[in-house]
Write a structure and sequence with these properties.
The chain is mainly alpha-helical. It has one domain. It contains five helices and three strands. A three-stranded mixed sheet has the order 1-3-2. The radius of gyration is 16 Å and the shape is globular.
Length: 167
């Protein structure tokens, strides 16, 4: 378990699977070298893979899943592009546009568990861009959800996380 976390990744996997395996035919699994979403295939459920045994990675990947609509959930990695490390400024700006909502949701999940949230730039080795616009977009999305409510799967996962904290 990570220091300061009320649970380890195994508890998050068990919680997610209990909440969504039967109803959404989706499971959560750790141990991956890179995060990846694989849609259901035949009788096999869709699988959200997160990095190694990092609980923070699990929350981030679940946030993406909670926001993906049905059509996106039928595609590997939701059909999004991913530019590896070494992105130029335009690619990094596109990354920030796609990541503001999932990271805002991840921050809500972290807050629910009482653990720190760290925004991800996900472009190591490159000069750090001006984060202010990204952090403002993240905060604005969070505020919209705090006023209008979370999407249904996100609210369900957040409520389940609350149960972990109470244990």
């Amino acid at each position: 378990m990570s220091p300061g976390w009320p649970c380890g990744p195994e508890a998050l996997v068990a919680l997610f699977d209990r909440e969504f395996l039967a109803s959404e035919h989706t499971r959560l699994r750790g141990g991956a070298a890179e995060p990846l979403y694989c849609p259901a295939f035949g009788a096999a459920p869709a699988t959200i893979y997160f990095r190694w045994d990092y609980a923070a990675s699990a929350l981030h990947e679940v946030a993406h899943w909670c926001l993906a609509r049905r059509r996106r959930r039928q595609r590997v990695d939701y059909g999004y592009w991913y530019a590896p490390e070494g992105r130029d400024a335009a690619q990094q700006a596109a990354f920030f546009r796609v990541e503001a909502a999932p990271q805002a949701l991840e921050s809500i999940f972290c807050e629910t568990l009482g653990v720190p949230f760290s925004p991800s730039v996900d472009n190591p080795g490159q000069p750090l861009p001006d984060l202010a616009p990204f952090l403002e977009a993240l905060a604005a999305q969070r505020a919209r959800w705090e006023q209008g409510g979370l999407p249904p799967r996100a609210a369900r996962f957040r409520d389940a996380l609350r149960g972990l904290v109470r244990l």
